[in-house]
Write a structure and sequence with these properties.
2 copies of one chain form a homodimer. By secondary structure, the first copy, chain A, is of the alpha+beta class. The first copy, chain A, folds into 4 domains: about 200 residues, Histidine kinase-like ATPase, C-terminal domain (Heat Shock Protein 90); about 60 residues, Helicase, Ruva Protein, domain 3; about 130 residues, 2-Layer Sandwich (Ribosomal Protein S5, domain 2), CATH 3.30.230.10; about 120 residues, Immunoglobulin-like (Sandwich). Chain A is built from 14 helices and 26 strands. In chain A, strands 7-6-5-8-3-2-9-10 form an 8-stranded mixed sheet. In chain A, strands 11, 12, 13, 14, 15 and 16 form a 6-stranded mixed sheet that branches. In chain A, strands 20-23-18-17-25 form a 5-stranded mixed sheet. In chain A, a hairpin with a 4-residue loop joins β6 and β7. The model of chain A has no long low-confidence stretch (mean pLDDT about 90). At the A-B interface, α1, β1, α2, α3 and β4 of A face α1, β1, α2, α3 and β4 of B. β1 of chain A pairs antiparallel with β4 of chain B.
């Protein structure tokens, strides 16, 4: 009897080390080609430094240096931070072992989570140059500073310590990472190290980055805010969308003795009452040992969890970028008067909370004949590659932008027009398509949220374009009436030698409209320490109808100090100033206004005015 | 002294199991959403079956069934093959452990390589339904058939055998895989299970697939070829593009005592003479122990390898799809008269051989106003997702298609026009962007090759379009002359009551051109077993000049039986028939032709005619 082929095959069936796997498939980690490898190496090191600083509550100060070597393809990369440092025993593990880290099991927003990033740079370095990576780390003023040279034993996925010594190092604490890689340095490109650092600095204004490029040019990105972003708290899974298998595993490993305590302690948003309701519905007695639940009962519990209503997940485990920084990020690309941003509420996919923010700028000097530019961010990290493979791009492509005034062949695909779209996902576990963290996977819930945010932006572009058009039309009519009619009246009165007629009423009759005009004026008051930034806002309502008007006017204001609101007959309702205006006689106007403090020039760029109780046509505002 | 934060962090720094990693990041494996999860599950199981059958030299017969359960989101997937089976001991490892497989270290083209695919389906199944996966396998007629139910212990990445028994099973050998998953079944969609199976059957004509869908509709894809494709041989790394770190590792683990034997035995295409030349150039004595080479010496050896010329890698480790099946794949999408394919020579990236094939169809009923359709394949597996993130798509986007007659905004991006492009990469290690194997990474060498293949296709579209235009113009002129001139002559002769003039010479004088017309006629000869497929090809050369012509005519023919070539004054030169034609007098024509046997209807669709020694204008052929 011949030996079955299966027995021959069995000999070659064996375990594959994760390091070997990634050494063979390094493109999965983002090291597809030399320029990308350069960017990824910097990114992993910087993201790591930022995460460590923020976790330890330290304002990050990062120094990045790329040094050319004698070999034109080879560069020495140094990244140094003022973070908490790493204890000696863990240095080799953190840098010399794939799938080793501290943030994997934590439900909290952070840049790195997989325990792969920085060790993948070490792996890439040794693959392409054969050299060791040097790590220097100090955990406190009175602690020794350790310097280690390491390699990764890929067959075992374990660090190999080539040298280890105690050295003198000035900083009180921090970590320095240095490796030699094969790479390419690209200056002045969209997908470059400099661009990555600049974008990172914009959406992380609490960070200081100093970058020395291979030509020894130094770029400084100063800290703008002396405060860390709200510390993203650790959370627990949300019952919605959690997977059956995960629930099963949680039950298996729980230390809770009762199901109610399991449910209330190990999930967010399940109250004791909710837990009892759940168990009642699934017909499971509370006294059952959570560890011994049958698959059927787990299934029942699972279905109950999916069908029951729970509060949205807490958002304090998320750290969105926020309206102001989104505008700033967009304005970096283009100087345009119109920008609109939207921050959605947190939602859940597979039990994981996430939040979508989007922003759009329109017009300005942007070329109308090209595809709109897309800026993608995930957990405050700019994504520079794999745009075509990203759910955030797919959301843009799915929307029919034509009703919103952008060109788009066939009503799908990336639209064409003078616009830049920014989109950010914040999540405790961003579902990237690969370990290189370049694109977000097509998770239905995420695409849905992104589509909603973007459509909101789209509607605002449209109303912006319409408003502009309408105002232009009215202003043409207005010019005609206000300038030409009096001229005709003057000439006629000269000819017939009679006194000139009063025209206001005639004009009013012809116009039959209310015109609301707004103005924004920025100035700096005082000097030096006492300097104040004033943004003065004026609103003028003209009554070009034949009736007296009494109405309400509402203005949405940003979250900043407000001074000198006039007239004083106003009420503040949240972020809205509400006036009772009038009576305003026909052909008369009324002035309103206020001053915003502490905003940068152009930070407040469009006055959102709403009205109620004004019948007929109103130009320059929307009904409340 | 306060405890440094680093010490607090150290407590949570720990190893992450690969199963846990993928359970948390299942989108990396392709399980982004229910419809994709369905497709990926089928794909991984079928790819596995195909690889196993082919490796064992068995013609694959695969049965796939998707069964709806009582729960509308849940399906039971069964995939059964007639492969070699799996020995009992290895069943749990192959299905219940990530990063475990037989093909990872082999340099040979296969669908699976990572040892992740099928166990990822088991993981997904238990994550979403909590259920076990059942595997039945038998390795030979006289061996017992084993049935096992398994789960994966994700904390350890080890299989957990829930039950194991010996059962009766009719087939002589084979494997059946059954799991329950949360999924969505999409009928009649581009990115569907059916579409995947159909495309797979087309480029793998040696495969029989029977598919029963959730509506119990059965689809049969019959075997078309009774022969396995050339068995892809195992190869060794090619010296070009291999990485320094890999070379260092190979030296470390080699059993060779001398560097020359290391180089000649462990690489392909390094001859003993080449090896000595290499060592001389790098100034390394052959007697040095390969294991003890310093990094400097390794670096020198590495640089020498990159700068020296070597033969291209052997292609017998690759299995391209081939011209005929590419046309068939394209024709499935669209019935068009024009198709062109190109197969590039094998090239190397990072020491890994790869080969690009491309094909294009143009015209037919395709809509002219939409983006061209793209069909991507890797190692004969259709890629249905992540088109936007794939190097093959990026190659298409990088080309300026406008000179080739397709529309394209700004000369980049996916072109618009009535065309379908197919592109295939065959490689011993396709560099996918992620474990889900949906897109190829942007490796420079691959994009370059793809661009070359596609530009070749582009040039052919252009010459096709030009030829069509030119023929149309000439035929209009010809119609004018051939029909209207005689009519005028007739009328004139009637009026003047004189005999009609002979017009041939006049026409010849006006035309002053050689016109080559071709015809293809398909018919079936005989009945039943004796049925033969005949494709008759005719070529007519008309001499519309005033000189007698003696010239050469060449026709490229496909690789099939050829009969009845006339006139008999021909020579076969490889795939080309060459005739010495003439003398052909002015206003006279000559006929040539042949019959191709065994091709399907429309399989031969355009006669490629070339000429030499014909001065002046020639319509319908290109100069040789």
């Amino acid at each position: 009897m011949a030996v079955p082929y299966a027995q021959k095959m069995a000999e070659s069936q064996k375990e594959i080390s994760i390091s070997d796997f990634f050494a063979k498939n390094r493109q999965i980690l983002g090291f597809d080609n030399p320029s990308k490898a350069m960017l990824v190496s910097v990114k992993e090191a910087v993201d790591n430094s930022l995460d460590a600083c923020e976790e330890a509550g330290l304002l990050p100060k990062i120094f990045v240096k790329i040094l050319r070597t004698g070999n034109k393809d080879r560069f020495i990369l140094t990244v140094r931070d003022n973070g908490p440092g790493i204890v000696k025993k863990q240095i080799p593990n953190v840098f010399g072992r794939l799938l080793y880290g501290s943030r994997f099991h934590a439900i909290r927003q952070s840049r790195g989570q997989q325990g792969i990033g920085i060790s993948s740079v070490v792996l890439y370095s040794q693959l392409t140059t054969g050299k060791t990576t040097t790590v220097i780390s100090k955990i406190g003023e009175d602690y020794p500073c350790h310097k280690m040279e390491i390699l990764i034993n890929t067959k075992l996925n374990r660090p190999q310590i080539v040298s280890s010594e105690v050295v003198l190092w000035e900083p009180a604490h921090g970590t320095e990472f240095q490796c030699e890689i094969v790479g390419r340095y690209q200056k002045n490109k969209k997908q470059s190290v400099l661009e990555y650092l600049r974008s990172t600095a914009i959406v992380n204004p609490h960070v200081e980055i100093i970058f020395e490029d291979p030509d020894e040019e130094v770029f400084r990105f100063q800290r703008v805010v002396d405060k860390l972003p709200e510390h993203a708290k650790e959370s627990k899974p949300h019952p919605h969308g959690i997977e059956l298998g995960v629930l099963k595993n949680m039950l298996h490993y729980t230390e809770a003795r009762k199901l109610t305590s399991f449910l209330t302690n190990e999930f967010t948003r399940i109250s004791p009452r909710g837990a009892r309701g759940l168990l009642d519905k699934a017909d499971i007695p509370d006294k059952l040992n959570p560890k011994r639940l049958s698959l059927d009962k787990i299934q029942g519990l699972y279905e109950g969890m999916q069908n029951m209503k729970f509060m949205s997940p807490p958002t304090d485990c998320l750290s969105p970028i926020g309206d102001r920084l989104i505008r700033k990020g967009l304005r970096k690309e283009i100087d345009s008067k119109f920008a609109y941003t939207v921050t959605r509420d947190a939602k859940v996919f597979r039990g994981t909370p996430f939040q979508i923010e989007a922003g759009i700028v329109y017009g300005g000097e942007l070329s109308a004949g090209e595809q709109v530019q897309i800026l993608r961010f995930a957990n405050r990290v700019p994504l520079q590659y794999q745009q075509g493979g990203c759910a955030m791009t797919h959301a843009i492509e799915r929307i029919n932008w034509r009703p919103y005034g952008l060109e788009q062949r066939g009503g799908k695909g990336i639209p064409v027009g003078p616009a830049v779209i920014l989109i950010h996902i914040a999540s405790t576990n961003v579902p990237f398509t690969s370990e290189s963290k370049e694109a977000v996977a097509d998770v239905d819930e995420i695409i849905d949220e992104a589509v909603r945010a973007l459509m909101d932006c789209g509607r605002r572009i449209k109303s912006h374009i319409n408003k502009k058009k309408k105002l232009k039309k009215v202003s043409e009519k207005y010019t005609l009436i206000k300038e030409i009619l009096p001229e005709i009246a003057r000439k006629s009165s000269e000819i017939v030698k009679k006194p000139q007629l009063a025209l206001d009423e005639v004009i009013t009759k012809i116009m039959n409209v209310h015109v609301i005009d707004t103005g924004i004026h920025y100035r700096e008051v005082g000097e030096g320490e006492n300097k104040q930034q004033h943004t003065e806002v004026t609103i003028k309502v003209q009554n070009y109808t034949q009736k007296e008007r009494i109405f309400k006017l509402l203005v949405k204001v940003p979250d900043t100090l407000i001074q000198g609101i006039y007239p004083e007959s106003y009420k503040m309702k949240g972020e809205v100033i509400e006036w009772d205006v009038g009576p305003v006689s026909p052909a008369r106007s009324v002035h309103l206004g206020f001053t915003l403090l502490g905003l940068d020039k152009d930070e407040y760029e469009e006055v959102d005015v709403f009205y109620s109780k004004l019948p007929g046509e109103v130009i320059g505002a929307d009904p409340a």
